[in-house]
Structures are given as structure tokens and as C-alpha cells.
Write the C-alpha cells for this entry.
Amino acid sequence: MKEGRYHRQWLLDSWDQDKVGSARVFIAGVGALGSVAALNLAMMGVGELILADYDTIEVSNLSRQLLFREDDIGRNKAEVAREFLLEVNPDVSVKAFPSNITEVPKSEYEGCNLIIDGLDTFEARRWLNSLAVDIRKPLIHGGIYGWWGNIQVVVPYVTPCLECHPLTPRRELEQPCTPKGEKRKKNGGENRGEVTPAVATVSCIIGGLQAQEAVKIILGLKPFDSYLFYDGLSGVFTSVKLERNPKCVVCGEEYATESIEFEINPEENIRELKERIKKALGLSDPVNVTYAARIISDDEKVGDAVREGNYLFIYDKTKTKPFKVKIRLS
Ligand SMILES: [Zn+2]
């Protein structure tokens, strides 16, 4: 009986199905983790799910991506996931974007209560983290590698973001989760990197935890605020309390209120400057440097292109906002 669908959830003191039913959740990537999170949230009756994944289903996905069947091979993940979820629970509405997460309109992210990170590359995660902080939406990060998994809830400007501690073990886990030997596709010319071991049981645990933190946030309960590491071989969960980094280039107060002062040698060219900035700020790929709204080409000499005391804007594809760099000629 339809009215009885959520009966067992209602038995929880803290449950409010009206809140759950009017929530919207953005799920970035519906692979191993995103499939599990989406299925759980749909079953719980979360009002609207927005799915984004440009990838198509391959046979090796079927060992752990719960929403896909043999007949779906070759079809887009977000679209197939949408059909599956609507069959599981016709009460929910599901929107599918068969595209890269960077191509989904920003309004779709802004209209959500929170964002779930079901991505499989470090670079895409950094972009999503940067966006979540920018629009102040909680981000529920999950990562898996073989028998290991991890989860972290980012509440912008309250808990550390993924960029606050880029050297935590998390980085080890932020590799693509497709098994060895599987052919990777190029995503808009971007190489998605090495494939790593993955097993369905670990993605169910981590994706399930992501869905649980999501529904807790929707219900107004306090989300888990540490970094949680799961070792499936020993069956141990370890939580590590992280502090926010005031110098974080995404959520740090120092960065948010001021530009970065950077000494610039007038004799060097833009290419050399980019290399230095890349190292200093831990950027993966500064795409452009602009000065007075003009993109400066790599071969231009810095001294010819800019003036002391003015600002350069450095665009990095892992960030949604450029870095503002104050020019101090050496
Ligand atoms: Zn941060």
C-alpha cells in the first residue's frame, strides 16, 4: 500500500517524511558510489534527485553499479539510473544530465539541499568541492580503493573542505574506481587516469554512509564532522578529526578576504610564472592568466604585460573561481 511505504522510517523519532519528500539532492556521478547513494535516497522518498554523469555503461560496471543491467550496456549512466529509480519509487522525481558535471547549469546545484560526490577523479572532485564552497552547499564526499573507503562531509565555512588537507590519505583513495584493465574514455580531452581495484561491498558501505549523512542533513540532524576511513580487511572504521585550514585556497578566511601576494619577476614569461604559481598554490593546471580582462599569452614577458600593484587572475580548471594575485615586481 502506497501510504505505508515509509512507515518504518516514520518510527524514528527524528524522522520527518515531509522534509525528506521536499528535499532535492544533486548526485555528481552515478557509478559505484552514486548508484548506491541514489538508490537509498530514492527508496527513502527524497523528493527530487538530480543525476549527472557523461559516461556510458560498460560490462565491467555491472559487478558493483547497482542501477545497471546487462541490457543497458552502451547507454548513458544518468539516463538509465533515472529510469531505474522511477521504477523503484514513482513518488520521487528524477532529472538526468548525461553530461560532464561542469556543463550542468549552476542553478541546478544552487537549487539543491546538498551535493553527493560520486566522482572518480581527483581533479573533478576538486572542482566540485570548489563549487560547493562557492555556493555554500554541503558536499558529501566518498572515495573507494579496493577494500578501503572514506567519507567526509564538507559544510562550507563550518567543517574543513577537501582542499584544506590535500595531503591526508584521502588522496590515495581518489583514483578512478574502475577495475584494472578496463578501457578509460577521454572526457573532453582530459585523461581520467589509471584504473584501480574496486569491489561492490565497499562501494555499498561508503555509498550507504553518504546517503545516510545526506538524509541526516535534510532532517536537520548534525552530520558526521570528521574524516572517516574504512579498512574492509580488518573491519575497522577510523575517524580523524580535521581542522579547517585558514590558508586553504578554497575556504580559508585569509584567502576569501584578501588576494594572494605573489612576487613576480618582470624578466620571466607567463609560462614560467604559471609554473611557479602552480607549485606554490598546489594547482593542477592553471588554464589562463588574465590582466585587465585580457588573456596574456604564455610567451609574453611579465614586465611588459602587467603593472605593479595591479591584479592578475589565474584560472585553474579544478576551481570555479579564479585566484586573485596582487602583483609585486621583484
Ligand atoms: Zn578548505
